[in-house]
Amino acid sequence: MKIIDSTLKPQFASIFDVEAIRAEFPILKLQVENKPLVYLDNAASSQMPQPVIDRLVRYQTSQHANINRGVHYLSETATAEYEDSRRKLQRFINAGEDREVIFTSGTTDSINLVMHGYGRKFIGVGDEIILTTLEHHSNIVPWQMLAEEKGAKIRVVPINDAGELLIDEYEGLFNERTKFVGVLHVSNALGTINPIKQMIAFAHARGVPVLIDGAQAAPHMRVDVQDLDCDFYTFSGHKMCGPTGIGILYGKAELLERMQPFKGGGDMIMSVTFEKTTYNSIPHKFEAGTPPIAAAIGLGAAVDYLSAIGMDAIAAYELELLNYATEQMSHMPGVRIIGTAPMKTAVVSFEVKGVHPHDIGTLLNQEGVAVRTGHHCVQPVMLRLKVPATTRASFAFYNTMAEVDTFIAGIRTVQKFFT
């Protein structure tokens, strides 16, 4: 990773009005242990700005009704707002059609939808699924369930000590039995950005579809699913300034049309008799029952907010935060960064010699600093890197260089406490 010179003020930060942005996040005014909150747990869940909160309140107070089929004002209004959010998400990821955007409850739900809808229909005994060591449990367990049910086999791409995928090993896993690839865009534990465009092209040259777990990428960088040419792309609203309980599955229309529904009932039907059910067209075929209407509208407001700032601007500023923290931590005796790939987003995992991660997290909390500790739902990564757990600081565009300084000072306080 290119590290900035700590003697220089970051150039981009001077034109990125972070204080104006912070003023729009009510929770950032909170005091923890009588100290200003320094929220560095954004990879787990980001915070919500006032415009998104206001949009949720406006929906609940003046637009709420169940969607579709209703002919009264509120139902028609809610339906229009819900579908408008779908179009916002289409533009945000540059999907070719709005019907390729399916609302789910989150990334985990989206991956499970693909496993049930595509995997159970097209993957059989002896077939092989390629995953990577970096995967979140959400992109491991569903495929294990499928492999056990179908008699299929999972093959795993290894990583090096820096936390990078070994692409030669990836390419060597393909054979005539390879039927599917699942890979995350960005590692939630290490921040590694994977070369997914290259990986997708290699798989497609062999007729193999690819699912991308974009939960840690969509909040931090521009995503263009047509440029990537991925078959499926998933992400969650709560990691990108939106509500919980909402996420997106993007899928190429021709694949979605071939897939079987995951859930039955409600709006996913065209007609029902006891003899036969005819399924609705996409995307409605995969949105059974009353959907998370308010959350979907809130997510639409969140991508409006992010787009107004600019995803390229967000990515550049967050990289400066990461570089600044990395540069300072690299000079701290007894501190070791876990995950040193040259291409990373705003995540730094680390260990402090002789101190358990939970103790680090507890003492940092006393300084008002919120970080994440544990295995981060990537136990295979921890096993490969020979660490039981790490402490993880994850940055967002509303964090500041001063907060990084508070975080670094907190680590020094931890070290003093245990010496």
Question: What would your notes on this structure say?
Answer:
Helix 2 (50-62) packs antiparallel against helix 10, helix 3 (73-93) packs across helix 10 (293-309) and helix 11 (311-329) runs parallel beside helix 14 (401-417). The chain has helices spanning 18-22, 50-62, 73-93, 107-122, 141-150, 167-172, 196-204, 225-228, 253-258, 293-309, 311-329, 357-366, 379-385, 401-417; strands at residues 31-32, 35-36, 38-39, 101-104, 128-132, 153-157, 178-184, 210-213, 232-236, 247-251, 269-272, 277-279, 335-338, 347-352, 369-370, 372-374, 390-394. Helices cover 38% and strands 16% of the residues. The model is unreliable at 1-12 (pLDDT under 50). It folds into 2 domains: 12-49 and 310-417, Aspartate Aminotransferase, domain 1 (Alpha-Beta Complex); 53-308, Aspartate Aminotransferase, domain 2. With 419 residues, the chain is of the alpha/beta class.
Total tally of structural domains: 2
Global morphology: globular
Helix content: 25-40%
Order of the strands making up the biggest sheet: 4-10-9-8-7-5-6
Query: Based on the structure, what is the oligomeric state of the protein chains?
Result: single chain
Question: Mind telling me the C-alpha Rg?
Answer: 22 Å
Counted by DSSP, the helix tally is: 14
Given as residue ranges, the uncertain stretches (5+ residues, pLDDT < 50) are 1-12
- Strand runs, count: 17
Key words describing this protein structure:
419 residues, seven-stranded mixed β-sheet, alpha/beta, disordered N terminus, Aspartate Aminotransferase, domain 1, four-stranded antiparallel β-sheet
